[in-house]
Design a protein that fits this description.
2 domains; TIR_dom; about 450 residues; methyltransferase activity; about 20% strand; 5-stranded parallel β-sheet; alpha/beta; Toll_tir_struct_dom_sf; 16 helices; methyltransferase; SAM-dependent_MTases_sf; binds S-adenosylmethionine; single chain; Rossmann fold; 8-stranded mixed β-sheet
Length: about 450
């Protein structure tokens, strides 16, 4: 069998690489690494080996992260050129928590590649990497139980485009479906109170903001903010009134607090009684920073409401051919769908940032009590979105082999999956989570 995975590493991590290869090769994933596979001439054999493999896997230890040697940079450079042409996949396995400090590495790797943070002591943590490699190499599902989806890292994703009607429609459908999911939580945080001021971060076009807070008599003032100028323009023209105002603001910006201070002064808001963040944290690289910044803005007795996603809680059953599982996996690695393990991490972020009374109010929206229309709508907010995104990615990168595989597979199987989904005995749960917290 020819080599499939080129492992790029510095000699300090030789022992780790040997263990990793042993694991991958026990699943018939044939690896290439210098110490074992160079026969006589590094300079000619390495470029040839990289070109012959399907995946380039960089092992990032402390040395690579801080002072990568020239030969590593050469390998990364060569691989990233092939990656740009869609001829090679790139991933890194980080065995250190240190972020890349080297500009050249940062430049070549950026956010295009997939990172796995795993322990030096294999095989713990390597299962996600293994699952991802098996998928990318077209070997189907990982035979080992590892949860629903491969690991992933957070990344910044300002994906929203006002001209994307499909996405706008999806957000609106989601808004209605979610009503049953956590409307009691809204009732609990609002009922019996009065004169409340609400801050909605990532309010988009304001539809959800106004649906949940616009007509509530308990609410005196609503401030919606979003990073997307078109979304804010739309929110202003559709909803701005005495009670509601919308502003273009970036929750990750260092000046966020100052800008918000001006807005609070203008609207006579001391602190916010409700801070609402729905489906935003999964798109942020460092949500903890935002949580830290907003804590001082919450009034005493005020409530933070967070809705997010965790695909560990997402499943379809029965799934005899594993097709739904593959869809969930595609969603996890798609660059447009956010970080799909975000939900469970929010709990510790809230605790670490000093929030009290943190409650995981809801976990997983399922179809068991849904009408046929609702079940169908839930399919469209998730599966059709994966299908559409894969098409978009395919049109953008027609030569990328992985995207092409996903696209072809979906073209051939999407209709059958929908039929399977529509069967009365098929249960779908989508991993929405809702938290509340106080300061
Ligand atoms: C998935 S939409 C969610 C919209 C709405 N909250 C909902 O649940 O339907 C995420 C929104 O967050 C916005 N967003 C992303 N990054 C942001 C940031 N750093 N600051 C403010 N808004 C941001 C996007 O523009 C988008 O409108």
């Amino acid at each position: 069998m020819s080599h499939e995975v080129f492992i790029s590493y510095q000699t300090e991590s030789q022992a780790f690489v040997e263990q990793l290869c042993k694991l991958l090769e026990s699943y018939d994933i044939k690896c290439w690494y210098g110490k074992r596979d160079v026969i006589s001439n590094h300079a000619s054999e390495i470029p040839k080996a990289i070109r012959g493999c399907k995946v380039f896997l960089l092992v990032v230890d402390e040395n690579v992260a801080t002072h990568p040697r020239g030969d590593i940079l050469n390998e990364v450079y060569l691989a990233s050129n092939l990656f740009k042409k869609g001829l090679l996949d790139m991933m890194s396995v980080n065995i250190t928590n240190i972020e890349y400090e080297d500009d050249e590495l940062l430049y070549h790797l950026g956010r295009l590649q997939k990172k796995f943070l795993i322990d030096k002591m294999l095989p713990d943590g390597a299962i996600n990497l293994l699952a991802e490699l098996l998928t990318r190499l077209g070997r189907g599902e990982c035979p080992v139980s590892y949860g629903n989806v491969p690991g992933d890292v957070r990344y910044k994703n300002d994906y929203f485009d006002i001209n994307d009607d499909h996405e706008r429609e999806r957000l609106n459908t989601q808004l209605h479906i979610l009503k049953k999911f956590d409307s009691d939580v809204y009732d609990r945080i609002l009922s019996g109170r009065k004169g409340l001021s609400v801050l909605d971060i990532g309010c988009n076009e304001g539809n959800l903001t106004m649906d949940r807070f616009g007509k509530r008599p308990e609410v005196r003032k609503i401030i919606g903010i979003d990073i997307n100028a078109d979304a804010i323009e739309s929110a202003k023209s559709n909803f701005e009134n005495e009670k509601a105002s919308f502003y273009l603001l970036n929750g990750e910006d260092a000046d966020f607090g100052y800008d918000l201070a001006e807005i609070r002064e203008k609207h006579d808001i001391d602190k916010f009684d409700i801070i609402h963040i729905s489906m935003l944290l999964l798109h942020m690289e460092n949500p903890s920073k935002l949580l830290k910044r907003i804590k001082p803005l919450l009034s005493k007795g005020g409530k933070l409401f967070i809705r997010d996603i965790d695909d560990t809680l997402t499943f379809v059953h029965p799934d005899p051919m594993g097709g739904f599982n593959r869809m969930i996996r595609i969603c996890a690695r798609e660059e447009l769908s956010g970080y799909r393990h975000s939900g469970k991490e929010i709990y510790s972020m809230l605790i670490e940032n000093g929030f009290r009374n943190v409650a995981l109010e809801k976990k997983g929206l399922d179809t068991s009590q849904m009408t046929l229309e609702e079940k169908d709508a839930l399919f469209h907010t998730y599966f059709s979105f994966i299908y559409e995104d894969t098409k978009i990615l395919y049109l953008r990168n027609p030569e990328n082999k992985r995207v092409l595989d996903d696209y072809n597979w979906l073209e051939n199987n999407y209709g059958a999956l929908k039929q399977e989904y529509d069967r009365p005995e098929t249960l779908f749960q989508l991993g929405f989570v809702t938290y509340t917290a106080e300061k």
